[in-house]
Amino acid sequence: MHELLPITTVQPSFTSVLTDVEQGTIPYEDIWVSRYDPDPKRESYLSEHGKLRVSLDDHDRNLVKLTRREGSVKIERAPAQDHKHPPRYVLSSRNETSKLYFPAQSYADAFYANQASPHRITAFDIAPNEEKFAMGFLDGSIALCSASNVPPPRDRLSEGEPTIKVDLKERPHKSTVTSLRFFPSSKVLLSTSADFSLHILSANTASEADGIPLQPARTFQAHTRAVTDACIVGVGRTVISASADTTVRVWDVPSRQNTSTVWFNDGGVTSLALPSEDSDTNTAYAATLGGVYRLDLRARAEGEEGDGKEKIIESGASSLALSANLLATGSAKGVVRIFDVRAPGTPLHEWRRGWGTTVSVDSLCFLNASKLVVCTSDGMPYVASLKDGGIKVDAEIVGPDCYPARHARLSSGGALWTAADDGIVRRYDQW
Fold first, then answer.
1. Which domain, by its residues, includes 81?
2. pLDDT digits (tens, 9 = 90+) for 62-73
3. Residue 383 to residue 381: CA distance in whole angstroms
């Protein structure tokens, strides 16, 4: 039986209220926070709410204080790392504490993040050099944005206001962009789409000279249904793709040839995961609607036994994440499981969060071997801690107001990036 984890919600305008009070725009304002703890008698939640007043300290007018006015839920300010980082906050209730991750920076383009009609981000990736990121959309278009040269958080009045202007945008696909992956050079981008194709695109910005930005340099076509995911193997001479046509295909990039194909008989392939860069490049993991498989990516000689796959988990998954020997799976019914790939028969941990089975797990991302980011369709992403032999909510990721954050990426510098249905990309600093 899976464990039910608690939920904490914070008024989305919390950071704007803090800024307004600190800058003297308003003398004070009340905000609401809520805590939902699992009911041990049944698979539901017991709610607890709190009202906090945000105001300036009577003696230190540079200090914003949070005073509890109603309920037992409270938020306390933790010491900031330095003046370059936003303040840190911890929420406590019934002897339980969890961190609150607020965006260190939000990236909102006036067109894509229009609050009246936001453009859902269907695919996202941050470049290895952290200088730019890419967003994909429902109409097959891709936007490339600089990750620098944006106003610091204190200079914006509210998170919904534009903070960036897209550097480049093109429409290389005919339908929804389903995944984006930067090559190690940060200058080339792999895209997949519901139009059955994969493209390798130049990801240079307008200030860079090489290639025609966001135009296909190579196209790979063999899938007969939507391509759902893709991964870049090693330095990028090989890529693999997953599709709703029940196949995983291995491609040789220089020749554009499909060198091998793995077929499945239990539904379309939903997600892929690769070991770390210094691990075996001949192994990958694929999730289908009916199970999770370990794949052998080597091209198979004619007459060689085996079909290139081994089913290691009997339950299907909608998302995967891999960290060393730990494999995380997320299901369309909201269940997250952690397995040891060396002995994957029984999950090490199994849990869900949310009401009923309508909350799907859209993205998983390991921050390290003991922390996993879980992005769900209810718009309440969180960090789960796997320490001490159990599961707990280490941090609530605050940002989208009821919009699902469907994509999470860990940058090479250790920052957490998310992209949501409100068209906004957010960067969070870990602590």
1. 3-101
2. 788 899 998 888
3. 7
